[in-house]
Design goal:
The chain is of the alpha/beta class. It has 3 domains: 192 residues, FAD/NAD(P)-binding domain, CATH 3.50.50.60; 134 residues, 2-Layer Sandwich (D-Amino Acid Oxidase, Chain A, domain 2), CATH 3.30.9; 44 residues, no CATH class. It has 10 helices and 18 strands. Strands 1, 2, 8, 9, 10, 11, 17 and 18 form an 8-stranded mixed sheet that branches. A 7-stranded mixed sheet has the order 6-5-13-14-15-12-16. Helix 1 runs parallel beside helix 7, helix 7 packs antiparallel against helix 8 and helix 9 crosses helix 10. It is globular, with a radius of gyration of 21 Å. 49% of the residues are buried. The structure holds flavin-adenine dinucleotide.
């Protein structure tokens, strides 16, 4: 048994659905494969999304998938002091706390409305290669294995992506550039409903801890640890339990769900296209390395890849050269910012708790108006010049 499509998208996360929708809307015959039994489930996300990103990816805010709205973010130093940022000043995870399971389904529905055929419980198990081109996907649905012939494959298969590797694209990430995350959906806590919280320092070595309120007395409480800082299996749970225990407003709560997962927080990778193939979202390591938030960049890149796929089908040209229009587009949009944020993350995660305390104190004193690293460093230079010597290159 085999199927014939113009475009085969692997993975029905936000990046895949945006790619499928835009390829289908551009006139291509599109199929999207999803290995899970239900799109968006289980949730592996803190569910933070900023409001400008929603506009950028062309969505209309909808109560169906918005659980809660916050006014801003609080950045906590290890000593408990904090800096308060308005929603516009904070990063790409602050504004809405969404219902990721519903959000993902809504994006998939948009893809279906544009003409995409979705196959759930269907795993890609390899790519089909011929004459130096990727020509489709080998897929499995229960015990049936079959070929999906496609002129273009879009790998949107998330952090654990295999499509890129099968196609020979290097998507490997160093352990220091991967956060191993654990999150509790907690009920019965006294969290401020107006602010998403980010906690820096040794509470989460190499990463950070977060509290994203989902309404009164409920929040996603989680952390990401850099994998090279993990000494023993179970460290993410030990650190998260300790974080909860150390905060009176959290320790009275009860988790109703545990969510584990990983995110890449690396610099942009070298290559995301080849003959007959494009990678998008986490599969292309497009997560913001500073926040670990990947919904926005995944959707933006998905949209671009879908548009380029439709153009390629019209032009009957599936070469890496033609598909590099996608690579140029996403790099023009967010590569520089991702690279800067990666460098900033590299520096910030090396700081001691004492230095972080000083940093937060300095910034709260001078009321920096943006969280951009450059503004942050100028502020610190005023008060603790000795702290910024190693950041001179940014200044
Ligand atoms: P995914 O959403 O991972 O989708 C990939 C899809 O591909 C999955 O449905 C998977 O089942 C499917 N798939 C995989 N392999 C195959 C295969 N072989 N065949 C068929 N289907 C396959 N980002 C934010 O913006 N805000 C946050 O608050 C946030 N918090 C996070 C908290 C945690 C604990 C974690 C782990 C991540 C968090 N992220 C957050 C990151 C965010 O979840 C991802 O960046 C986002 O989901 C990327 O979308 P995607 O479509 O690229 O991949």
């Amino acid at each position: 048994m085999s199927y014939d499509y113009d475009v085969a998208v692997v993975g029905a996360g936000p990046a895949g659905s945006m790619a499928a929708k835009n390829a289908a809307a551009g006139g291509a015959k599109v199929v999207m494969l999803e290995k899970r039994a239900e799109i968006g489930v289980p949730i592996r996300c803190g569910e933070g999304l900023d409001k400008r990103s929603v506009v950028k990816i062309g969505l209309t805010p909808n109560k169906k998938w918005i659980a809660h709205e916050v006014k801003g973010a609080r950045i906590f130093a290890p000593d408990g002091s904090h800096l308060e940022l308005t929603e516009e000043m904070a990063g790409n995870e602050v504004g809405y706390i969404i219902k990721r399971d519903i959000f993902d389904k809504e994006l998939a529905k948009d893809a279906i409305r544009a003409g995409t055929n979705i196959m759930i419980k269907t795993s890609a198990i390899d790519v089909i290669k011929k004459d130096g081109y990727i020509k489709g996907i080998k897929a499995r649905h229960f015990n049936k294995v079959f070929d999906i012939n496609a002129k273009i494959v879009i790998g949107a298969d998330g952090f654990e992506s295999q499509v890129g590797r099968w196609a020979g694209i290097d998507t490997k990430v160093k352990p220091k550039d991967v956060y191993s995350c654990l999150q509790y959906d907690m009920i019965g806590i006294d969290v401020s409903p107006d602010f998403s919280e980010f906690h820096l320092g040794t509470c989460a070595p190499g990463g950070y801890a977060w509290v994203f309120p989902k309404g009164e007395h409920r929040a996603n409480v989680g952390l990401g640890l850099a994998v090279n800082k993990i000494k023993e299996k179970g460290d993410p749970k030990r650190y998260l339990d300790r974080f909860v225990e150390n905060h009176d407003y959290l320790k009275k709560g009860t988790p109703i769900a545990h969510i584990a997962g990983a995110v890449s927080v690396c610099a942009p990778i070298e290559k995301t296209v080849d003959n007959g193939i494009m990678l998008v979202g986490d599969a292309a390591r497009q997560i913001d390395p500073m926040t670990g938030g990947g919904i926005t960049n995944g959707c933006v890149a998905g949209q671009m890849a879908g548009e380029v796929a439709a153009e390629a089908v019209k032009a009957k040209n599936y070469s890496a050269e033609f598909l590099s229009r996608y690579e140029k587009a996403w790099r023009a949009d967010f590569e520089d910012k991702s690279y800067m944020n990666w460098m900033a993350k590299e520096k910030l995660t090396q700081l001691t708790d004492d230095t972080l305390n000083k940093l937060i104190h300095a910034i709260s004193d001078v009321k920096v108006e943006k969280i951009r690293i450059i503004d942050l460093l100028h502020a610190v230079r005023e008060k603790y010049p000795e702290l910024v010597k190693e950041f001179e290159e940014f200044l």
